[in-house]
Amino acid sequence: MTRHRTTSIELDDETAQLLAQVARKLGVSEEEAIKRALDKAIVRDVSARKKDRLDILKKLQRRLALTSAKAEDWNSAIREARR
What is the pLDDT of residues 35-74, one digit of tens each? Predict the structure, then answer.
């Protein structure tokens, strides 16, 4: 069962109007519009972090001039060392 917490927020007029517009456009309550915006922001943040990690890995592979053959040699050496 999902727990609900009641909270209140104070918005400036411009933000309150924007929230109302978004809620109307989506056909949902303002509360639901806020929840969806938060969910979307979290998904974007997670996606961005995953992309950053992948970019870092690719840069490392380029810096090491890592090829498929080198990677396989490394894997073989590790497997052999574990025996």
Answer: 999 999 888 888 888 888 888 888 988 888 888 898 889 8
Q: Is the entire prediction scored with pTM above 0.90?
A: no
| Total domains present in the chain | 1
Q: Which of 23, 42, 39 is nearest to 31 (CA)?
A: 23
Round to whole Å and give the CA distance between 25 and 81.
Answer: 61
Residue with tokens 């999902």: 2
Query: Which 3 state secondary structure label does DSSP give 30?
Result: helix
**CA dist 36 → 11, 14, 40, 49, 80 (Å):** 18, 19, 6, 20, 51
Other CB atoms within 10 Å distance of the CB of residue 33: 20
User: Could you list the residue range(s) of the whole structural domain that residue 60 is in?
Assistant: 13-82
The type of residue at 34 is I
Are 57 and 50 a contacting pair, CB within 8 Å? no
